[in-house]
Protein backbone atom coordinates (compact mmCIF):
# COMPACT_ATOMS: atom_id res chain seq x y z
CA UNK A 1 0.00 0.00 0.00
CA UNK A 2 1.39 3.36 -0.98
CA UNK A 3 0.93 6.52 1.01
CA UNK A 4 0.66 10.01 -0.33
CA UNK A 5 3.26 12.34 1.03
CA UNK A 6 2.64 15.95 -0.01
CA UNK A 7 5.72 17.49 -1.52
CA UNK A 8 6.99 20.75 -0.22
CA UNK A 9 6.32 23.36 -2.85
CA UNK A 10 8.43 26.36 -3.52
CA UNK A 11 7.19 29.61 -2.00
CA UNK A 12 5.76 30.67 -5.35
CA UNK A 13 3.94 27.33 -5.89
CA UNK A 14 0.21 27.30 -6.50
CA UNK A 15 -1.39 26.22 -3.21
CA UNK A 16 -4.68 25.59 -5.00
CA UNK A 17 -2.99 23.19 -7.39
CA UNK A 18 -1.54 21.34 -4.40
CA UNK A 19 -5.07 20.79 -3.10
CA UNK A 20 -6.20 19.52 -6.50
CA UNK A 21 -3.26 17.13 -6.83
CA UNK A 22 -3.84 15.75 -3.35
CA UNK A 23 -7.52 15.12 -4.11
CA UNK A 24 -6.76 13.44 -7.42
CA UNK A 25 -4.09 11.28 -5.77
CA UNK A 26 -6.79 10.01 -3.40
CA UNK A 27 -9.02 9.44 -6.45
CA UNK A 28 -11.78 11.61 -5.04
CA UNK A 29 -14.27 13.77 -6.84
CA UNK A 30 -15.25 17.24 -5.68
CA UNK A 31 -18.80 16.00 -5.07
CA UNK A 32 -17.59 13.23 -2.75
CA UNK A 33 -15.44 15.60 -0.70
CA UNK A 34 -18.23 18.15 -0.52
CA UNK A 35 -20.60 15.50 0.84
CA UNK A 36 -18.12 14.31 3.48
CA UNK A 37 -17.09 17.77 4.64
CA UNK A 38 -20.53 19.33 4.27
CA UNK A 39 -18.97 22.13 2.23
CA UNK A 40 -20.46 23.22 -1.06
CA UNK A 41 -18.60 21.88 -4.07
CA UNK A 42 -18.30 25.32 -5.63
CA UNK A 43 -16.30 26.48 -2.58
CA UNK A 44 -13.92 23.53 -2.84
CA UNK A 45 -13.46 24.24 -6.54
CA UNK A 46 -12.79 27.89 -5.72
CA UNK A 47 -10.06 26.84 -3.28
CA UNK A 48 -8.42 24.64 -5.90
CA UNK A 49 -8.54 27.45 -8.43
CA UNK A 50 -7.27 30.02 -5.93
CA UNK A 51 -10.42 32.10 -6.38
CA UNK A 52 -10.91 33.66 -2.94
CA UNK A 53 -13.52 36.01 -4.39
CA UNK A 54 -15.88 33.04 -4.68
CA UNK A 55 -15.61 32.14 -0.99
CA UNK A 56 -17.64 33.46 1.96
CA UNK A 57 -15.99 36.38 3.71
CA UNK A 58 -13.99 36.14 6.92
CA UNK A 59 -13.50 32.97 8.94
CA UNK A 60 -15.78 30.78 6.80
CA UNK A 61 -13.42 30.79 3.84
CA UNK A 62 -10.37 30.22 6.08
CA UNK A 63 -12.09 27.33 7.87
CA UNK A 64 -12.99 25.74 4.53
CA UNK A 65 -9.31 25.77 3.57
CA UNK A 66 -8.31 24.29 6.93
CA UNK A 67 -10.88 21.49 6.72
CA UNK A 68 -10.08 20.70 3.11
CA UNK A 69 -6.32 20.62 3.68
CA UNK A 70 -6.71 18.44 6.80
CA UNK A 71 -9.06 16.07 4.95
CA UNK A 72 -6.50 15.61 2.15
CA UNK A 73 -3.73 14.98 4.66
CA UNK A 74 -1.91 18.22 3.97
CA UNK A 75 -0.27 20.37 6.58
CA UNK A 76 -2.91 22.95 7.43
CA UNK A 77 -0.52 25.60 8.71
CA UNK A 78 1.75 25.18 5.71
CA UNK A 79 -1.23 25.61 3.38
CA UNK A 80 -2.19 28.83 5.12
CA UNK A 81 1.39 30.08 5.07
CA UNK A 82 1.65 29.46 1.35
CA UNK A 83 -1.58 31.31 0.84
CA UNK A 84 -0.48 34.37 2.77
CA UNK A 85 3.22 34.16 2.36
CA UNK A 86 3.64 34.63 6.12
CA UNK A 87 2.78 32.87 9.37
CA UNK A 88 0.84 35.69 11.05
CA UNK A 89 -2.73 34.84 10.01
CA UNK A 90 -4.53 37.31 12.24
CA UNK A 91 -3.19 40.55 10.81
CA UNK A 92 -5.07 42.95 8.57
CA UNK A 93 -3.40 41.28 5.53
CA UNK A 94 -5.60 38.20 5.78
CA UNK A 95 -6.63 37.56 2.15
CA UNK A 96 -9.96 36.19 3.32
CA UNK A 97 -10.85 39.65 4.63
CA UNK A 98 -9.99 41.28 1.30
CA UNK A 99 -12.38 39.46 -1.00
CA UNK A 100 -13.24 41.01 -4.34
CA UNK A 101 -16.94 41.75 -4.53
CA UNK A 102 -18.58 39.47 -7.02
CA UNK A 103 -20.44 40.84 -10.01
CA UNK A 104 -23.74 39.37 -8.82
CA UNK A 105 -23.37 41.33 -5.56
CA UNK A 106 -23.27 44.51 -7.61
CA UNK A 107 -26.38 43.31 -9.43
CA UNK A 108 -28.11 42.85 -6.07
CA UNK A 109 -28.18 46.59 -5.48
CA UNK A 110 -30.27 47.37 -8.58
CA UNK A 111 -32.55 44.50 -7.57
CA UNK A 112 -33.10 46.15 -4.19
CA UNK A 113 -33.80 49.47 -5.90
CA UNK A 114 -36.17 47.74 -8.30
CA UNK A 115 -37.95 46.10 -5.38
CA UNK A 116 -38.30 49.46 -3.64
CA UNK A 117 -39.66 51.06 -6.80
CA UNK A 118 -42.16 48.26 -7.27
CA UNK A 119 -43.21 48.58 -3.62
CA UNK A 120 -43.55 52.33 -4.02
CA UNK A 121 -45.62 51.86 -7.16
CA UNK A 122 -47.93 49.42 -5.40
CA UNK A 123 -48.30 51.83 -2.48
CA UNK A 124 -49.21 54.67 -4.85
CA UNK A 125 -51.78 52.46 -6.59
CA UNK A 126 -53.22 51.44 -3.22
CA UNK A 127 -53.50 55.06 -2.08
CA UNK A 128 -55.08 56.03 -5.39
CA UNK A 129 -57.67 53.28 -5.03
CA UNK A 130 -58.49 54.50 -1.52
CA UNK A 131 -58.83 58.06 -2.82
CA UNK A 132 -60.97 56.95 -5.77
CA UNK A 133 -63.20 54.79 -3.56
CA UNK A 134 -63.62 57.65 -1.09
CA UNK A 135 -64.53 59.99 -3.94
CA UNK A 136 -67.22 57.55 -5.08
CA UNK A 137 -68.89 56.91 -1.72
CA UNK A 138 -68.50 60.27 0.03
CA UNK A 139 -71.51 62.58 -0.25
CA UNK A 140 -71.03 65.29 -2.88
CA UNK A 141 -70.37 68.90 -1.99
CA UNK A 142 -73.52 71.02 -2.09
CA UNK A 143 -73.50 74.81 -1.88
CA UNK A 144 -76.75 76.80 -1.69
CA UNK A 145 -76.61 80.33 -3.11
CA UNK A 146 -80.23 81.17 -2.40
CA UNK A 147 -82.25 81.29 -0.21
CA UNK A 148 -80.53 82.13 3.02
CA UNK A 149 -81.28 80.20 6.20
CA UNK A 150 -84.51 81.06 8.09
CA UNK A 151 -85.78 83.53 5.52
CA UNK A 152 -88.89 85.68 5.98
CA UNK A 153 -90.75 86.79 2.85
CA UNK A 154 -94.11 87.90 1.56
CA UNK A 155 -93.53 86.31 -1.88
CA UNK A 156 -95.42 83.16 -2.89
CA UNK A 157 -92.58 81.91 -5.10
CA UNK A 158 -88.87 81.55 -4.51
CA UNK A 159 -85.79 80.90 -6.63
CA UNK A 160 -83.60 78.08 -5.31
CA UNK A 161 -80.06 78.13 -6.69
CA UNK A 162 -76.74 76.61 -5.85
CA UNK A 163 -73.88 74.49 -7.02
CA UNK A 164 -73.07 70.82 -6.70
CA UNK A 165 -70.51 68.38 -8.06
CA UNK A 166 -71.41 67.92 -11.70
CA UNK A 167 -71.76 64.12 -11.41
CA UNK A 168 -74.41 64.50 -8.71
CA UNK A 169 -78.18 64.51 -9.06
CA UNK A 170 -80.01 67.37 -7.29
CA UNK A 171 -83.51 67.16 -5.87
CA UNK A 172 -85.63 69.89 -4.29
CA UNK A 173 -88.40 68.47 -2.11
CA UNK A 174 -88.02 65.18 -3.93
CA UNK A 175 -88.22 66.65 -7.43
CA UNK A 176 -85.19 66.28 -9.68
CA UNK A 177 -83.56 69.52 -10.81
CA UNK A 178 -81.28 69.75 -13.82
CA UNK A 179 -77.84 71.24 -13.37
CA UNK A 180 -75.48 72.49 -16.08
CA UNK A 181 -72.05 71.09 -16.94
CA UNK A 182 -70.47 73.13 -14.13
CA UNK A 183 -72.87 71.77 -11.54
CA UNK A 184 -74.83 75.03 -11.18
CA UNK A 185 -78.58 74.59 -10.73
CA UNK A 186 -81.63 76.81 -10.20
CA UNK A 187 -85.32 76.17 -9.77
CA UNK A 188 -88.32 78.37 -8.88
CA UNK A 189 -90.78 76.82 -6.43
CA UNK A 190 -94.15 77.92 -5.09
CA UNK A 191 -94.56 78.73 -1.42
CA UNK A 192 -97.58 78.54 0.84
CA UNK A 193 -98.57 80.81 3.67
CA UNK A 194 -96.79 80.01 6.88
CA UNK A 195 -93.69 77.87 7.36
CA UNK A 196 -92.20 76.14 4.30
CA UNK A 197 -89.53 73.46 4.67
CA UNK A 198 -87.36 73.19 1.57
CA UNK A 199 -85.21 70.08 1.39
CA UNK A 200 -82.38 70.19 -1.14
CA UNK A 201 -80.48 66.94 -1.63
CA UNK A 202 -77.60 65.82 -3.80
CA UNK A 203 -76.36 62.31 -4.47
CA UNK A 204 -73.93 60.61 -6.83
CA UNK A 205 -74.59 57.14 -8.16
CA UNK A 206 -72.94 55.19 -5.33
CA UNK A 207 -72.42 57.93 -2.75
CA UNK A 208 -74.18 58.90 0.41
CA UNK A 209 -76.75 61.67 0.17
CA UNK A 210 -76.00 65.27 1.09
CA UNK A 211 -79.04 67.18 2.42
CA UNK A 212 -79.56 70.88 3.14
CA UNK A 213 -82.80 72.22 4.69
CA UNK A 214 -84.05 75.77 4.38
CA UNK A 215 -87.04 77.09 6.35
CA UNK A 216 -88.93 79.89 4.68
CA UNK A 217 -91.69 81.77 6.51
CA UNK A 218 -94.30 83.42 4.27
CA UNK A 219 -96.38 86.15 5.90
Features:
8 strands, five-stranded mixed sheet, 39% helix, alpha+beta, 6 helices, Immunoglobulin-like, 434 Repressor (Amino-terminal Domain), rod-shaped, 2 domains, 219 residues
Question: Any overview of this molecule?
Answer:
It is a single chain. This protein has 2 domains: about 15-95, 434 Repressor (Amino-terminal Domain) (Orthogonal Bundle), CATH 1.10.260; about 140-219, Sandwich (Immunoglobulin-like), CATH 2.60.40. Helices cover about 40% and strands about 20% of the residues. The protein contains 6 helices and 8 strands; from the N terminus they run ααααααββββββββ. It has helices spanning about 15-25, 30-35, 40-50, 60-70, 75-85, 105-135, and strands spanning about 140-145, 150-155, 155-165, 170, 175, 185-190, 195-205, 210-219. Strand 7 and strand 8 (about 210-219) form a beta hairpin. The longest helix is centred in the middle third of the chain and has 35 residues, at about 105-135.
Which structural class do you get from the secondary structure elements? alpha+beta
CATH superfamily of the largest domain: lambda repressor-like DNA-binding domains
General form: rod-shaped
CATH class of the largest domain: Mainly Alpha
Would you tell me which CATH topology of the largest domain applies?
A: 434 Repressor (Amino-terminal Domain)
Give the mean pLDDT. Answer: 78
**Number of distinct beta strands:** 8
Q: What is the CATH architecture descriptor of the largest domain?
A: Orthogonal Bundle
What's the N-to-C terminus distance?
Answer: 129 Å
What would you report as the Rg, rounded to the nearest angstrom?
43 Å
Which strand-content bin applies to the residues?
A: 15-25%
Total discrete domains: 2
Low-confidence stretches: 6-13, 86-93
Largest sheet: 5 strands, mixed
Query: What is the helix content?
Result: 25-40%
Amino acid sequence: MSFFTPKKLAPDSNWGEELRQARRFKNLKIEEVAKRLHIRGEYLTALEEGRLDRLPAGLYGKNFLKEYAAFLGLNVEESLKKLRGRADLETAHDPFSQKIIKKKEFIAFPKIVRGLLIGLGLLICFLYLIFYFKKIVVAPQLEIYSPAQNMLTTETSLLISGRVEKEAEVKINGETVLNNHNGVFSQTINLKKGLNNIVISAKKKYSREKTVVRQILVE
